[in-house]
Predict the 3D structure of the following.
Amino acid sequence: MKLIAQIRLNPTPEQHAALRETLAEANAACDVISVIAWQAHEFRRIPLQKLAYYQVKDSFRLGSQMLIRCIAKVSDAYKLDQNVQRIFRPQGAIAFDDRNLSWYTDKGVVSIWTVAGWQYIPYSLGEHQRTLLAYRGGESDLVYHKGMFYLLAVCDVPDPDAQQIEGVIGVDLGSVNLASDSDGDIHSGAQVDRKREWYAHRRAALQSVGTRSAKKRLRRLSGRQRRFQKDTNHGISKWLVAKAERTKRAIALEELTHIRQRTRARGPEQRARPSNWAFAQLRQFISYKAQRAGVPVVAVDPRNTSRTCSVCGHCEKANRRSQAVFCCVVCKHQAPADVNAAINIRNQADGQTAYGAQPSG
């Protein structure tokens, strides 16, 4: 399982300037390589390397290996779409490998190539990153973000042995209740919704003022809502995976690909809620945490899970009296709507899962 360890570098002012200069030089080379690739319509890495290497080498202060990494960056950028010529930001991330970056984990220092020569730069990290770094291998991206440099190191962490599974927890993901499980536990999205509304109103007010201080405040607010939602999703996913691991159960989730296209909303307030629903992130967090814990994750078809009675199996739109309440028109079973859906998800997974299955991501 590949995970990313985010390591903050602590360069001196001179080293900081050298790193910024290196990023600027490398991305300028990427722009030139992109022009060559675009004109020749050659986007494959090895042919592009043969075509561009000697044309670019004498024009930039880059070592051979750094130039090869720049060619690879351009080639990767065109893999998604070859209809638009790529342009690279001066401070965009650049990949380093073991030929131009060395880790000295016993000293807490990296040796990194720059246009000003090799630099020995200390770094700081937490215990989690320290554990991941023991499995580091391959490339590390040098990233410049808000005045600080980070190395994003790829770590190939071994998968744990799969647990002996004795059941399934069904989990229903939503925008009102972020996660509800088949045991009846509900993680409300009310606080996230309040934060979303507060930030939306605050941004609108500051934008209407338009002064320099208002713009400065807007920059400070940038990303806060996203980070709050991310922290909330980390907390929910950690709680669910710990519960599944403790009770020796798999986790069943709905397959919600393209859910935004299927979600209908009336009015600007209802449209804002699905657009701020970070369900894909929550699902990703649950999946990778479960994989690390040896807990299987099962995807089930979401159709009619919210309309079907978990007791008698009757499926009808009228069963869903409101967003919050489910009441079966046949057997009169009543329950929180999201919990009823989570039980249906669990029942589906029970029918398609062999206990003891390997984790899925």
User: Anything to note?
Assistant: The chain has two domains: 2-156, 168-189+236-352. Residues 159 and 180 are 27 Å apart (CA to CA). The longest helix spans residues 13-40.
